[in-house]
Amino acid sequence: MESVIELAFEGLYMLRIELSFLLVFGGLWAAGRVFSRPDKARKAQGAALVRRPSRRPEEAVPLANVDPKKLQEPGWVVSQVSLLCRSQVQKALELYRAAMRQGLSVKDMPTEGCQQLYSNLVTAVIRVGQADDALSLMKDLRRNGRSVDASLLCSATKLCTSKQLFADCLAIYDFTSQDPKLDIQDKSVWSCLLFCAVETKGFHRCSHFFDRLKACGAPSPKDFGNMVRFASSTSNWRLALNLIDEMHKAQVEVDSVVYNTVLAACVSAEQLDQARKLLDDMVEAGGVTDVITYNTLAKGYAKAGRMDMCFELYKLMRGRGLNPSQVTYGILLDGFINDNEVEKAVDIFNTMRAEGCQMNTVLYTTLIKGFARAGQVDQAVQIYEEMRKERSMQPDVITFSILIKANCDVGRLEDALKMLLAMKEAGLKPDEVVFNNLLGGCINDCKMELAKDLYKEMISSNVKPSVATFSILIRLYAQCKRWDEAVDLLRQELPEQRVSPEPRLFGQLAQCCLRDRQGRRASEVYKMLTETSTPTAAMNSTLLGMCAKLNMLDTGAEIMHLAANANSRVDPRDAAMMLEAALRKKKPQVMGALKEAMVKLNLPVHA
DNA sequence: ATAGGGTTAG
């Protein structure tokens, strides 16, 4: 004990100089604070906050100086909070919360004061972007036995929408709509909600909002526009076309953006005949078709493999006096390249040049893709070099992605890695597809080390792997016969990366196992699949078909047992096929196991 | 507000 005290004194003695400095300066600092306080406070918080005998009415009292009893007086709180709401929203909230803590009775407040208090607070917090506070204020109201009235909800919705707080707006509506007495008759509230739902992709509620809106009056052109956006985003082409009809009937002008969006809805729903009909309607309506109209439909034809129609449409567009844009040429070039119609792609390219169309990153990238597809990697790289020479336009992530894949595909892994470096030097961040392409490049020559490094880099640079990544890794591990690692990949890494355990990943690995005659592992993987989902009959059919073909009858029987345990269906024909194979190969034990599984699967076992 | 280029999958 004594030695401790001694030690402490010794320590203090050694630090005596430092300690004296501390004392002196500390003292000075404290004095400075004490003496300069009123001044600083005055400057920082404004004159209104300092005790002064004659306070003007617009000035609020600082929270620290408020008499706790005042906080229980509704009238005082309402006026003070309302004052602060104008310019000091945080202080208003603080004062309000202090009053709540002091037991201000919201329940017993006069209705008018209560409305004023919450209306001012709610609008003030939304105005500064704190819509979550608005929601908690409304919850306070309800907790105290009062309800959010239509006018408060109305101003909250409108403000939230104008501040682009779409999700908050919907959350506020959801909370208030729990009150069955609340009746919203204001059309603009429904307009706002519809817009918010579209913006946040909350498509399941758009129709409901639109119905409620129509119950309050005629929808505006913007409301129709939002509904068309909804229809297009969900590929609901019937709804989209119906909306146009509805607009015509309501004598609402349909502008080209709305028409084009409806056209896009038809195209994305693969309703090309409907889209074509709509184009004709648009031409008849007059003044609403533009390049975008034709490009939208042209892309639809290209995607459907109808390059003949696509090209016809392009000619029609020119015939009608519209000039093709870079996008038009991009669609045509890409379409012909995908169709392996190189000469036609070259024709388009030449027309493009002749018409003086400027190249851009997308057009260059499309050309690079064309050469890559034709196996002319050197040509592809040459386009890339040309592109780099033009300072105004630089390759982007997609350009590099294509170049990297092109190099990987012909086994030039070194060059692909150089491209990766070049893209980083250009300030571009490799994304998932880039990493996937590089990982895919590791498969052929089993570059396990490189693949692991790339995967590590992917994770450490916060690029999330996807189902595609795992599918590629399965191929890699299977090629290199790293079966343990492949199983761990699905068992551990997949959940670790929060990638959804899609059945086909397990199916893919199980098939790889079978192909390499890894029967035990195949059934292990199948069992893993049954732990996350019920295998489909189609999946069972594929696996059992392979088992039969590869003469892996034990594995087939095992899979059928596992399928039965998981309540999965097995096609009777597949079971019969297995049984027949076992009979042919004279395997009585396997036949026994198969029959047992068939009983479990409720399948008829013939003699 | 609306249109074009990239990865997996036997």
From TrEMBL:
Keywords: Membrane, Repeat, Transmembrane, Transmembrane helix. The keyword Ribosomal protein does not apply. InterPro entries: PPR_rpt, TPR-like_helical_dom_sf. Pfam families: PPR, PPR_2. Signal peptide: none annotated. PPR repeats lie at residues 255-289, 290-324, 325-359, 360-390, 396-430, 431-465, 466-501. The chain crosses the membrane at residues 12-35. This is Pentatricopeptide repeat-containing protein. It comes from Effrenium voratum.
